[in-house]
């Protein structure tokens, strides 16, 4: 069972490598497959390393909470701004593709575990994990908007070089990420484990591959720069900690 997360991580990496080499509907399919493998990876690791309590906490906060905040966002424009999802990402409920809350669940887990490894302060862990998760969206949103998977009705003011996405989106991500990490800090044991290595690898791979893909394959140099610097600030302390071991 301990090898399962590594196997799933390998499958995830393979699918993500294929993504920039494809086009149109194939990319949409690979996007969905990536999220499905990713959420299976995170949930499986949570179960193996910390038990059913961790799975319930993760799915309840990032999954159910992610769906609710997205549904509110689509209906009201709060907290991300006024936006709409296309039909490219599969079935929707209340205007939200069901794959979206799974994406929150997938990446919230490695963000939290990386923060556990970086600092022993609960407050700092919440800040580091939330900041890292929100900065991942500096890669995600520009890529998905470029593919036409969702659009904003009022995309200004935007970050320089990232048109079509209002700053409110990133602030909304940060606010909800703080809520996720606060709940996880209350529900889960606050200690890193040796079994967390696959999630560290996922976190580092997500960062490095995103910088590479946006720079070389997807023609999104601005998101490569923004994400490279800001998410890099969340990933670098983990690399330093792991190097010292």
UniProtKB/TrEMBL annotation:
It comes from the Bacteria. Keywords: Membrane, Transmembrane, Transmembrane helix. InterPro entries: CruF-like. The chain crosses the membrane at residues 30-48, 55-81, 93-114, 126-150, 170-188, 200-218, 224-242. The keyword Manganese does not apply. This is Putative membrane protein.
